[in-house]
Specification:
binds adenosine-5'-triphosphate; 7 helices; 29% strand; 11 strands; 31% helix; five-stranded antiparallel β-sheet; single chain; Rossmann fold; alpha/beta
């Protein structure tokens, strides 16, 4: 069992409510994401919000991104700073790419927004293109790429920009199995690379969400109440289901998947 400690608060969601007219969509959503200290390293977290279709995952993601105002409640970052639009890199299901720029141009533009990449923008973009298997299509326009390829460009774009928080809406859909493993590996590398880097994944793909995360929040309705809330927080580190490569072969992995299915 890995020794670890959760340290500073990176993000706090407090009493989030969302209502459209009389219809409650989200209620009493509270969670806290902290960075993690392990012997010799300090890292961010990978958190997944899992729930069935239509439960409110995308609405929650928009609230986290500052793109949707909650009816009540707040999102604060790094202790007490209110989150604002632009604090988080968002990778939506319908990838927003500039259709008039080649993917190389778009990625270079993203890299140039990141002060940490100053002087090595081009080589970093080339490296990402290679890691994500898109080197041969780097001069294509988005319209010439498949949905899965566009998604990878969208993920790269946000990674290159260097935001501390990355919100990913259904990142596993539209990827074939070979690319999926590669993308999961890269996302994990990102979270391990920086103490402040936090990935928040919204998904109904339980298997992949559990495989990549260290905490899972189950979004659902309970006790006949209207509006979705966090029914359960599952700490995958405590179950020894984080940070190693054979997670999916552990008996605790299939038990956790079954547990989540029952909760949805
Ligand atoms: N502008 C709106 N006005 C009224 N209701 C809305 C509006 N936008 C979303 N909703 C409702 O909010 C609920 C949650 O939608 P949301 O898109 O967050 O679901 P989801 O969990 O992301 O679903 P999926 O997995 O299918 O994408 C749905 O019942 C939807 O009808």
């Amino acid at each position: 069992m890995t020794v670890y400690q959760k340290k500073e608060v990176l993000l706090q969601a407090s009493n989030i409510q969302l209502q459209y007219g009389d219809a409650p969509i989200l209620r009493d959503i509270n969670f806290c994401i902290k960075n993690i200290v392990r012997p010799g390293m300090l890292q961010g977290q990978v958190v997944s919000l899992i729930g069935r279709s239509g439960i409110g995952k995308t609405q929650m993601l928009k609230i986290l991104a500052g793109l949707q105002q909650p009816s009540a409640g707040s999102i604060t970052l790094f202790g007490n700073r209110p989150a604002q639009a632009g604090d988080m890199g968002v990778i939506f299901q319908n990838y927003y790419l500039f259709y008039w720029r080649t993917i190389y141009q778009s990625l270079l533009l993203a890299a140039r927004q990141n002060p940490l990449l100053k002087g090595k923008e081009k080589e970093t973009v080339e490296q990402y293109l290679s890691n994500f298997g898109l080197l041969s299509v780097k001069h294509y326009y988005p319209g010439q790429l498949s949905g899965g390829q566009q998604q990878r460009v969208s993920i790269m774009q946000q990674l290159l920009k260097g935001a501390s928080f990355l919100l990913l809406d259904e990142p596993f859909s539209g990827l074939d199995v070979c690319v999926l493993d590669k993308v999961i590996e890269l996302l994990l590398q990102v979270s391990l690379s920086d103490e402040l880097k936090t990935l928040i994944i919204v998904s109904h793909d339980i298997q992949h969400a559990v495989a990549i995360s260290d905490t899972v929040y189950i979004l659902g309705t309970e006790n006949g109440q209207q509006g979705a809330t966090i029914k359960k927080e599952i700490d995958l580190i405590e179950r020894d289901l984080a940070w190693h490569s054979d997670i999916q072969r552990q008996p605790a992995f299939s038990d956790t998947i079954e547990e989540i299915k029952h909760l949805l």
